[in-house]
Amino acid sequence: MRHGDEIHSCAELMAYIQEVGFLPLLDSGIAGYSAEAVVDDDNRYVLLPDGGWDWPLWKWKGPIVQSGICVYGKFFAGKAGFVSREWWPDFCNYRRNRCPAPAEGSIEEAIVLTLQEHGSQITRELRAACGFTGPKMRSRFDAYITRLQMACRIVTEDFVYPLDKHNNEYGWGWALLTTPEQLLGRDGFECQHSAEESRHRLLTHFHTILPNASDRQIEKLVG
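The structure corresponding to this sequence follows.
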């Protein structure tokens, strides 16, 4: 893995994602293995004198997802990260086999069907469409969304930001969720391997890019 000030731009990070295949956005628990760890200091989070903040890496997420070179979601032990298009078929093949399709009549099925109907929605809209409008419903709903992302049933299509009175984007933004089928089309899922073969390929690849990681750490990434 890279260490230090090596990545200075969004384009360089996109190339790096394609090189390694899998990259958590923030701390992964493995030294040097995250987008945050490999960008230079100028692109990390910084508090501004006026009380605001700047974080170029955070702003790169949207352009990277929109570029089509990778898929983004909470894939790594519930934490967000990127999976290259090259590795997505094996990753999705294994994860979906491990976590079968949502049961008929389940909340997970309702979420997926709602996204299929609407194409894409931010979490707040999706939560309301699925009837999770009562008190303390947000955390429960977010848990379902995370599980569906871990199972490769939901991904992030883009990020939506509110606008201030000057028409400038601000805040942390909202993930615009969709299904992989709608984002990638059926061709994005073609995998010639069994689920067990995909798992073996994933384990081998992670051991290659993370030679100092423990078996337990790699198993956690593969899922």
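The beta strands are 22-24, 46-47, 53-54, 70-76, 79-84, 121-122, 155-160, 174-178.
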